[in-house]
Design brief:
Blueprint (H helix, E strand, L loop, with lengths): L1 H4 L5 E3 L7 H14 L6 H14 L3 E2 L3 E2 L2 E4 L6 E12 L5 E11 L3 H15 L2 H9 L3 H12 L1
């Protein structure tokens, strides 16, 4: 299942996805739509931003974990990006790693399980550093897939 959660076209390495968390989310959501994992980019981004308004998901250690359950999500997916420069979230936390979690709206158990699994991985400094050191989307996808297995 972990291999199915992280798809290569939804992984970005050291590419500028925008100057804000919202721009990064929209860029990754567009990738999710291109793979058929999201049916409506605007609806999904709105759901992620509504969740973000409840509490910012940028964490210490340079990681942002935007996430949402959404009717616009076709299948659970994690889009991943390492950024070339830090972006500052609304809560003041700077991040250069983004893990966008997308889960269909009617699957709350999958949502909680995925959020817990990704959170467990990203709190480990070694995992974060390995993600930052990845030079290709294939390397980053492999690291994240292995962490989710």
């Amino acid at each position: 299942m972990a291999d199915d959660l992280v798809q290569l076209p939804t992984v970005s390495v050291r590419r500028d996805l925008g100057a804000t968390l919202e721009e990064c989310v929209r860029s990754l959501a567009t990738r999710l739509a291109a793979t058929g994992r999201v049916s409506d980019v605007d609806a999904f981004v709105a759901d992620v931003l509504a969740r973000e308004a409840q509490g910012a998901t940028a964490l210490p250690g340079g990681v942002a974990l935007p996430h949402a359950r959404s009717a616009a999500v076709v299948a659970p997916t994690v889009a991943v990006a390492s950024l070339p420069a830090e972006v500052t979230a609304t809560n003041g936390q700077a991040f250069d790693l983004v893990f966008l979690l997308a889960v269909p709206g009617d699957r709350p158990d999958d949502y909680l399980r995925l959020l817990r699994t990704v959170t467990t991985a990203v709190v480990k400094a070694g995992f974060r550093e390995d993600c930052r050191a990845a030079e290709t989307p294939e390397q980053l996808a492999s690291l994240v897939s292995n962490a989710l297995a």
